[in-house]
Specification:
- By secondary structure, the protein is of the alpha+beta class.
- 31% of the residues lie in helices and 18% in strands.
- The protein has helices spanning 3-15, 53-63, 65-68, 82-87; strands spanning 19-24, 38-44, 74-80.
- The protein has a three-stranded mixed beta sheet.
- It is globular, with a radius of gyration of 15 Å.
């Protein structure tokens, strides 16, 4: 099973979303072809009602702890209630370009 599929199944079970997109954005980063390390998740669930974004993200990190401890390097999380999602007219901002892809970070001396 692909990592993306594992993520989808866990999020469906944990949040019973009305809308779920798990998008593999690894190709946008400096990783080998076919990698599953960077994901964008758009999830709409009324389980997020009355929760701050930080708590929503923590809940997702908890549900995906196994993947984050192994192969998943980064998650771009877009978490909404049905009302919030309707206000966005079902659109999500595009992910920014990878900063420093292919470059090594310079540490100060």
């Amino acid at each position: 099973m692909l990592i993306r599929e594992q993520i989808e199944e866990k999020l469906k079970t944990a949040f019973e979303p009305d809308h779920l997109e798990v998008i593999n954005e690894s190709y946008r980063h400096n990783v080998p072809a076919g990698s599953e390390s960077h994901f964008k998740i758009v999830i709409v669930s009324d389980r997020f009602q009355d929760q701050r974004f930080l708590n929503r993200h923590r809940a997702i990190y908890s549900a995906l702890a196994e993947e984050l401890a192994s192969t998943v390097h980064a998650l771009a999380l877009h978490t909404y209630t049905l009302k919030e999602w309707a206000g966005l007219q079902n659109t999500v901002l595009a992910s920014p370009s990878c900063r420093g892809a292919g470059e090594l970070a310079q540490l100060p001396d």
